[in-house]
Amino acid sequence: MSSKILIIGACGQIGSELTYKLREIHGNDNVIASDISYTNLEIVNSGIFEIVDAQDYSSIHICVEKHKIDTIYLMAAMLSATGEKYPMKAWDLNMSSLFNVLNLAKAKFISKVFWPSSIAVFGPTTPKEQTSQHTIMEPTTVYGITKQVGERWCEYYFDKYGVDVRSIRYPGIVSWKTMPGGGTTDYAVEIYHKAITDGKYESFLSEDTELPMMFMDDAITATIQIMDAPANQLSIRSSYNLAAMSFTPKDIAGEIQKHIRDFIITYNPDFRQQIADSWPKSIDDSYARKDWNWNHQFDLEKMTNEMILQLKKKYAPAEN
What we know:
Helices cover 44% and strands 15% of the residues. It has 320 residues and is α/β, with parallel strands linked by helices. The protein folds into 2 domains: 5-122 and 144-168, NAD(P)-binding Rossmann-like Domain (Rossmann fold, 3-Layer(aba) Sandwich); 123-143 and 169-320, NAD(P)-binding Rossmann-like Domain (Rossmann fold), CATH 3.40.50.720. Strands 3-2-1-4-5-7 form a 6-stranded parallel β-sheet, with helices on both faces. Strands 6-8-12 form a 3-stranded parallel β-sheet. It has a 3-stranded mixed β-sheet with strand order 9-11-13.
């Protein structure tokens, strides 16, 4: 019998691409996409879609029972920059949605949970270079606080109730398919779009702000790999460090200029600079590489080649 998967937050940046990939692997009928509204019509129309409120236990439970779900990917969250504007809403959404899914697993309605954490769990007191799996975590954003607390609850539910919950700490994610959703690393997506459409970009982070980043294809691969790994291979039940590359706005602009020579970048740091300054510059993800053979495929050059290629195709009709 095929695994029946529910993706909560399927209309978001990572959720949408994860939905397509899981449907490719498991078949359309075995992957149920859900979100709070019909915000992404491509996802809504690409297979089975349900309106599910991540903050409402019964809303999720009804969907689980209806489709005989055994695995949930909880991708709904309010991200770092948006969360600073609406701190209590971010806390309520990020925490209640996690408890709802963990409690469904505790009650044996589902057997496996994926919940994403983030480099936002780290803070200004965390060592910046090659940040280790087990280190100081004093996050300064509401998003980071919810992720750090969430990690502790995931481990607790695994230890106390045997819930098979798996998690990775995503770095900044770069994708050409979907626009970002209110994160501090969003500049690394916006810059490519603006390079193609405007030939220039004003960065909200300073030129030398180095952050851990990852191309979306690698993030999706890692997510599926950890869920496919045998349970006895996983030594981390809070959340795994995950890394691919680290770069600055200046680095990414230089790479874009290899393709678009006249591209101009300017810098006007805003409130997101303070958030970025509290995060690591690079991540040690040796546990992920050892436990479930994680290995990234994209560096900055390869990612930029792909971003420019795909976005030129995307914007070509508008130019004619």
